[in-house]
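SEQUENCE-TO-STRUCTURE ENTRY
===========================
What this section holds: a protein sequence and its matching fold, both as plain text.
Question of interest: how does this chain fold, as expressed in backbone structure tokens?
***
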Amino acid sequence: MTRAATEFGRLDIMINNAGVFTGLHTIIDETEDLYDSAMAVNAKGVWLCCKYAITQMLTQEPLETASRGKIVNIASVTALIGEGHHSAHSASKAAVVNLTLQLAVTFGPRRINVNALCPGFIPTAMTRPTNAETEERHRGALQGTPWPRFGTPKDVAQCVLFLTSSEAEWVTGAILSVDGGVSAK
């Protein structure tokens, strides 16, 4: 953030897209270390990035579009639904959703947009099948998705582009599901 502000004179857009998935566990089987790891990256990492991005954005004059800056936090559909075997991941991504809402309310009057995306299952390096059990889980995930395909990184990117565009100037505090209808069930 400091480098962007130094090189370009301001920080207009912050996308918080880091995350970890600790695997499929019930709360009984998930270790405290796995929980702490998920919370450190998924919740605290976003909190820290928002803290420093907002600090910078508050020093800037609004752009022509009247925004001082836009933040998009990438949460997960697991923050919105009771997905089995995702206890630490769900808790950490729910923290991102609620942080997004709080920041939108607090900093909307200062012309900073804060929104979150909640992607469903997107085949990426984090979810790529590594064994037959994972491939079976992927088939089950596809059956649980109303839309007849998995999402793609492009599906998420298009929503990020919208939320960071001038067309979304009055959008703040939005929690947008990008999940093929999973959270509608």
